Amino acid sequence: MTHSTRRLATIGAIGLTAALALSACAADSGGTDGGGGSDELTQVKLQLQWLPQGQFAGYFAAQDQGYFEEAGLEVEIIPSGGDIVPQDALANGDVDYAIAWVPKVLGSIEAGANVTNIAQIFQRSGTLQVAWADSGIESVADFEGKKIGSWGFGNEWEIFAAMAEEGLDSTTVEIITQDFNMNAFLAGDIDAAQAMTYNEYAQVLETVNPETGELYTPDDLNVISYEDTVGAMLQDAIWADTERLESDEEYQETTVAFLKAVIKGWVYAAENPQEAADIVGAAGSGWGPSHELWMVNETNKLIWPAPNGIGYIDEAAFDATVEAALIAVNETGARLITEEPGDGVWTNEYIERALAELEEEGVDVRGESFEPIEVELREGGN
To answer: Fewer CB near the last or first residue (10 Å), C or N of the chain?
Structure first.
């Protein structure tokens, strides 16, 4: 595909230091100034792609632990319950940065959105298809003739890319529109349900099996991970406004400062998963404590270890996501994208600078010794 590491505006030769640049732009942060904040802090708006939960623990930890403030930023974290499309909010100038899955944004970019991936936080896909152990569904090839759950709303493309590789399309399976829970699966209305490692999969494991009176276990399930298929696509990434990156020196400096604080937040979440879960709970998550801790722990697995440093965009993984997006066709016959994106869709310029500066400060940005914890789920996630 087209090589996409086009260097955006050169930032290495900027004469002002990051601290001076941040102070300079505090008084005038443009259309995204939240207003009412300290004159000494740059106002930043970050758009999440869902409600507060462990999936976003690093951002809430950065806020709670004061990393944003230390970087000269006052960050407003804006949730979305599906009512806000993050990349649209960014492209429209409503926010400064957005968290969104790469395939969803690829579709928006083809439709005209001018945004750039500046940090690939999730290095691995967390999407699963979950079936019962006696279903006969052990791989994507076994979907034929089955009822396959799909959330839609741009979350479905890994399913259809993996099916395409197996020579399947929506005429060979029955696509069932699935809510963002496992109720239909538990009721027997879906043969294989879409799930995230950090959320819906746990919802099954914290449910009582009526036949045994005990919680379901992994032995009760067949789990297909899209990370093991050609359908695997990169997910949570941080996106920035391309035009501002090209022309606004203050935004460039703010971007580096923001990324440094975010990285420190995710390092904190990796080293302190229970505390991170508590922080997200206090930020408004509606999940129970064992479910929230599970979410943080499983999210950490998608990030760490990070051999090139957290947030570094691997070109091969990005290209594989594009290739998967090109072959995916959903049940309506629609395609996610019809051509490869052009230059500028991603850059490592800012994450490389953030990583280098943090390593000089002694921050472990690679997490080579990371080990997930064991989490005991309780009924209902309590």
So the answer is: C
